[in-house]
Amino acid sequence: MDAFIIFFIIILVASILQTSTGFGFSIMATPFLLLLFEPREAIQINLILSLIISLSLIMKIKQDIDYGILRRFMIGSFVGLPIGISIFLSLDMTVLKLFVSVLILVLTFLLILKYRIKQTNIRDFTIGGLSGAFTTSIGMPGPPILLYFSGTNTSKEALRATTLAFYLFIYFVSLIIQIIFVGTSKVIWVSSLEGLPMVIVGLITGQLLFKRINQHIFRMMTYVLLLFTGLYLLLQQL
């Protein structure tokens, strides 16, 4: 029973974050789901529920999507997706997570210190590739995109809409790749179904919250989530 309550809380909080910011489900849910499930199960539950959130919101936010960046993210991800699944199947995940955690922390501190970068087409392709690799390897597509958009001072409306639209693509493709190369199980689909009511509550709450968040608060939330992700991955491996 305690495990069910923890599961519902994880899904609710992660759904609110995803809906109100366009990111946060994988960043918040995956580390805690790994406490309750095997890696394959945690990653696929994350993919399924994130896909549902993106599907539910896409029509409401389509006018804010930057379609040029979205297209380049998608093209870049085609390179990163197979690389990520190869890493998941063959490399030591401890080493990978240590590297990712240190990279996230260093880049986040640079952003906090007002370091900014210019958005270019090449960088769009690169971030799409990194996000694809992160998705199929550790189930977290968000950090590369979040770091990139924060560094380019993207508006909260464009960030949320473009990220959710990209997730709609990347989560679907990643789920198919995971099922083909890693397999799936009844536990994954039953758990995803059980988490659906919390996703619905999170969708409603997150939409209300988004309207009340200004750009400054939104940016502070991104830094907190990035620092949390980096510290969690680092401490988990030490």
Strand and helix map with partners:
Layout: H1 2-21, H2 25-36, H3 39-61, H4 67-90, H5 93-112, H6 121-138, H7 142-151, H8 156-181, H9 186-210, H10 215-237
Helix pairs in contact: 1-2, 1-8, 1-9, 2-3, 3-8, 3-9, 4-6, 4-8, 5-7, 5-10, 6-7, 7-10
Q: Specify the structural class.
A: mainly alpha
Overall number of domains: 1
C-alpha termini separation: 30 Å
Q: Please write the string of helix (H) and strand (E) elements.
A: HHHHHHHHHH
Low-pLDDT stretches are none
Structure, described:
It is a single chain. This protein has 238 residues and is mostly helical. It has one domain. The protein contains 10 helices and no strands. It starts with a helix and ends with a helix.
Summarize the structure.
With 238 residues, this protein is mostly helical. The protein has helices at residues 2-21, 25-36, 39-61, 67-90, 93-112, 121-138, 142-151, 156-181, 186-210, 215-237. It has ten helices and no strands.
Highlighted features:
single chain; globular; TSUP; cell membrane; transmembrane helix; TM_pro_TauE-like; 238 residues
